[in-house]
Amino acid sequence: MTLTLTPISRIPVVNPGDDLVVLINEGLKRDDISLKHGDILVVAQKIISKSEGRAVNLASVRPSQEAIDLAQKIAKDPRLTELILQESSSVLRTRPGTIIVEHRLGFVCANAGIDHSNVGASNKSEQWVLLLPEDPDASARRLRERLEENSDVSLGVLIIDSHGRAWRMGTAGVAIGFSGIPGLVDMRGQTDLFGYTLEITQVGAADELASAASLVMGQAAEGRPVVHVRGFPYDLREGQFNELIRPEHEDLFR
Amino acid sequence: MTLTLTPISRIPVVNPGDDLVVLINEGLKRDDISLKHGDILVVAQKIISKSEGRAVNLASVRPSQEAIDLAQKIAKDPRLTELILQESSSVLRTRPGTIIVEHRLGFVCANAGIDHSNVGASNKSEQWVLLLPEDPDASARRLRERLEENSDVSLGVLIIDSHGRAWRMGTAGVAIGFSGIPGLVDMRGQTDLFGYTLEITQVGAADELASAASLVMGQAAEGRPVVHVRGFPYDLREGQFNELIRPEHEDLFR
After folding, report:
1. Which of A1, A21, A44, B145 is deepest in the core (most CB within 10 A)?
2. How close A139 comes to chain B (CA, Å)?
3. ipTM summary value
4. B55-130: what CATH class?
């Protein structure tokens, strides 16, 4: 079966309070896509965050002494450093310009996923940044419920971001929240063609789909923040995002 | 533009010396796919390794004292441990059953990517394992040249494996060699919708495509080891695999 990933065309720039379901449904209609059972919509975290009002004007941030000290050490804006610390449960590593943290949502990423680009201040002298959604699983669930109501089919919704990786250059799309899809697909107990039990026991299916969709979204374009997926090869189920988080005591690389 | 990933149907079990170009061309014909300019064929490392005779009978391996000592410490077969050390340039971490290494090909992975499954011994009491290809970039280049000759169009070829990750559970498809595609796509100098310079400067496009194709291949099935890709959104070019390797001195997680 073919897996197809189609960016929804001409999703407009999203502003706080915008209803993404309306924007997505308008896009699907424009592109003549009618949702079928098992389809998945992959949404860039950026438009979730913007619609949920997660943009912060750096002028409004008062950095703590901890943030001021760290910011000086790594040559970063102390106000941005403050936001990164607020959004994180711990700091793993630092280097000039970058703080690798465990985000309060559980995953490890650079600078708490806080983004400068495509935030769009009304006044060019203002500096706005965008925090990740408060609760991406809940955002995904709300989107999914309303998209399912409108379409009368079972869907999955996946919210993705682009993260750097240990050991390898370049970013890759990863899941930060979802509803109605598996995080991991468990292959334990399955045997290979020759009857050996498989050594690879769990596939990070939600992350693999996130990378696939990220490829289609590109990076510069807020113009392609929603991707329609058909042909996801695993059964849909009520996955939990924290399936994807390696427990700290099992992690050799913290 | 839609990205489509289609597994080639009924690729037979591959044996040493088999000509993958013949198997792929037969599959494409059977599935009525004619290659077009810019198409990419993604191939599982397993069938590359098998066709290149990279299966090793563990009975033929004589472990060094270093391998015997390490094997005892982590409760692993000393012969397999020997092969892992031979295939690696350094050991990063160990835990029971697992050795995280820098593979001689440059990337970090568990157990030097040596696989037990789907190797298929003629005698069930024999234990065979499969090493990664000697030079996956060269394997990809050879495949590509012959596929291009046959089809008279410009193609990409990507060889993938499934790796575990730091911080996250589950495996994801990653590139281990390629020809005719970019490893990284550089976004530096591009600006966002509002004129800010992008912070994400390099996308691991080959790895994102590897994850996408891995999703379609599944894990158990040697039956879907080749995926035809149409609509890759970036320009094809002569990428180098080592674009994807983070230099050790820049890596905070070794």
Report:
1. A44
2. 21
3. 0.94
4. alpha beta
